[in-house]
Write a structure and sequence with these properties.
Radius of gyration: 16 Å
Order of helices and strands: HHHHHH
Oligomer: single chain
Distance between the termini: 15 Å
Shape: globular
Helix content: 55-70%
Strand content: under 5%
Largest sheet: none
Structural class: mainly alpha
Length: 133
């Protein structure tokens, strides 16, 4: 499948695919489309590290808590798109990802569970994209 064919097929879902958009918004802040396991891991790892660093610094410099909000938004968008890839509604997964103790199991499930094969109601299968992003 060529890139043009992919984009034409994805346009039928009336949303961007969420991983071929190279902009900051497309990679980190959109809630549309699907995200496969590898792309999820490569994007959620720096988000986790930033969340931890900001959380640690916030105990000494409280006003840096303002930085935590966009990082949390990015984290929730990644969880949402990964839930889309699994064919699930994202709301339950976003809540589970924010609950202590539950978030460990939810995170492992999102990381290791293979996404739905083929297109689903959230978009085309990201593993079928003709070029790696």
């Amino acid at each position: 499948m060529e890139v043009e064919q992919w984009e034409k097929m994805q346009a039928a879902y009336t949303t961007p695919d969420g991983f071929t958009d190279k902009s900051v918004r497309g990679m980190w802040f959109t809630f549309d489309g699907r995200l496969n396991r590898m792309r999820y891991f490569l994007r959620v790892l720096p988000v986790y590290l930033l969340m931890g660093a900001v959380w640690a610094i916030m105990h000494h410099v409280w006003w840096l808590g303002v930085l935590y909000l966009p990082i949390l938004w990015s984290f929730l968008s990644l969880v949402s798109r990964r839930a889309h890839d699994l064919g699930h509604s994202p709301w339950g997964w976003m809540i589970a990802a924010c609950l202590p103790a539950v978030n460990v199991f939810a995170g492992l499930y999102l990381l290791f569970r293979h996404g739905a094969h083929g297109p689903n109601r959230y978009g085309l299968d990201p593993t079928e994209y003709p070029y790696d992003v």
